[in-house]
């Protein structure tokens, strides 16, 4: 009996619904979380183990040559340990680092196909150049790492190898400098409609502050991570270890104040973007929570590394790997938190002034609000709302208009957000929700306006109440497939054409 | 069966496209896509073929030490080729995204979980190849463990092409989108398995040629590495593999062609595929001649062979694109019509909206009525007239602020928090102008 029902029910009511793309949906984890996890891992590896780490390693390799005796090319013991540190970074960057980079493309394509599809059309060349630089970077990193040992045969070869290291550092930095332009572009509201060009990525007001923040912060994070590797790869109580700890400490002490300066400048440039994007109101209240927290992350992130470095400089022996672990964690958290805030700044848009976070274009709204969202959706089970199919219609509306950011019962669940407003555990009032939904963007300015008719708002409210009562979930197109709207299939298009 | 029937009726979706022009003419993306994809797949072939061969060689190495050395030498190339393969994959990914936005993303979404699983799976496989490479000495006495590491990586590498082929196949058939439910359904669409075999054989053929070249390099210290094997031994193995795999393609190739759904077929496709075959035949003949000829002549003609087979690969790669273009031609026209239709609909909607707004504005309303409208838009979601919703009822406000318009407006603009059991109210300073505030206060207080 149970089997029969569970087999048939999905057939009848779980067929999926979406605007122009069958939509992937993770109903527990939340779609944005998928992107966030992959992207934050990638940024941490990119900044901490590539952009900041390559110059650190090259610098340390150079120190080996400088500090060696006249008859040596380099101090081989030192050189070997620095090589091992590089090996860790090499393995991580060429596996997890590279794959999370591809993973950003994959996950964004799944969760947010319209936005990434639009951005690629504008930024194709930026990404193409980025790709060329990236290919160069990968080739250089392989040359640098794989020729390390064989370059120890002559001083000339060793110096050339070190020069390769500096080249590699430069290319890693350029890769970041290009991608930051695209990131800043997305944070700069309104620019899409006025000057949507490659150049605008570089000239917009958030570009330099971001670069000024990311460069020294990458160095700082790399320094902390480098310190951890030093404590792991250099034998305790040895002269070499003390020397390595001191060098890395100096590195951190040099970059920490610059990172702080960059963070402060970036921190202050964010509200400008915010003001144009969303007004005061609750939006800012929620944002302010993040924004205040950010101060602490800056403070803890930088100061814990700095304290570690000062200890490293004056009491080098005190530094043990388990002590270093904490500052490393804090430094990565500091970097990661900035990424979260960056994500928040964009709301309610995914592309400022052009596309809302629900992937619908602002300019298309009149169509949806006048003629209805469901009538214009390619994938939907309902096009005409009746009292019988109201909940099913609401499910379709939810999937199209809400599911990019909200789940039914999981992270950022729509039931939870309404319960927080109307009282936790209380039955939600359909009428209140139905009148609230079309106006919510007035109070909650980080929310896009509701892209549908009054009828659709009522259906959505009925659905939300229904999932509060039943605990029902919404499966994505990846498991339940799609149903094509009879108004949007080949036949309909051909008939319209006549 | 029923859903299949419905699908055949009219279940071909026609979504609208992203209303932005391509940044370059279409032919440009086609060229970039075909060329960069072939470069990418070349290194994928080497990564996959290298893993398979290293695995086989290492197992053989349990009895014959020379094979263990061969396995180690091949294993060293896998990690390099895999890094190049990944980075070269970005350009075709970007190009196919621009060129076939609707089709590619739809297929991705419909196979979503497996599609995103590519990331952790490949990451794990890559880490395993490093683990395998760097533990050659450490696990010297635990060969079973060491071989298992490579075997696991190879299994993952062998599985990944299924995910890509399923996607690239599904994107060609919008008429199937409403029929498939997840990856497994899409995997069993016709043509995925023959294409998979075609790909595996190509990987082996390419790796065979690669092994020939790798061991023929003058600066490769072959004699220092191997004790018994000669360069000729390995070169012969390389050619034999390339030739055998190419001959097998003559059986799998026609199968791929026959299982292709007929909608993308055309003489242009047949022509390019047979041109590819025509270039492969002399290359195979030359390999055969070198294999059966004098030992010292085996290196002759290598570049000719590689070049001819390169042209074959180029033809086959172009064939893929031609089939893709043929299959989607009509559907893309429909999408174009749909996209334009929507723009007309949009104009209508905007006109209708403006008319409605004009109508509303011309109506004669009292201040309090206008205030009621403002209330409906900004306040009604949290406040009801006579009972608590999220915030307190309007009647209560009217009582508190009777005769005190200034404070009421101040509160609306910048609310404080008086009641511990109510959530914080948002401020409306930036959304409401003084006129609206006056209308609103008028409505609330009366």
Descriptive report:
The complex is a heterodimer of chains A (498) and B (446). Chain A has 498 residues and is mostly helical. Chain A has two domains: 2-16 and 360-497, no CATH class; 32-356. Chain A is built from 20 helices and two strands. Chain A has a two-stranded antiparallel ribbon with strand order 1-2. The radius of gyration of chain A is 27 Å and the shape is elongated. Mean pLDDT of chain A is 86; it is low at 1-17 and 276-284. Chain B has 446 residues and is mainly alpha-helical. Chain B folds into two domains: 15-342; 367-445, Cytochrome c-like domain (Cytochrome Bc1 Complex, Chain D, domain 2), CATH 1.10.760.10. Chain B contains 16 helices and no strands. Chain B is elongated, with a radius of gyration of 34 Å. Classes of the chains: A mainly alpha (498), B mainly alpha (446). Chains A and B meet through helix 4, helix 5, helix 11, helix 13 and helix 15 of A and helix 3, helix 4, helix 5, helix 12 and helix 13 of B. Chain A: This is Cytochrome bd-I ubiquinol oxidase subunit 1 apoprotein. Chain A: It holds the Pfam family Cytochrome_CBB3. Chain A: Keywords: Heme, Iron, Membrane, Metal-binding, Transmembrane, Transmembrane helix.
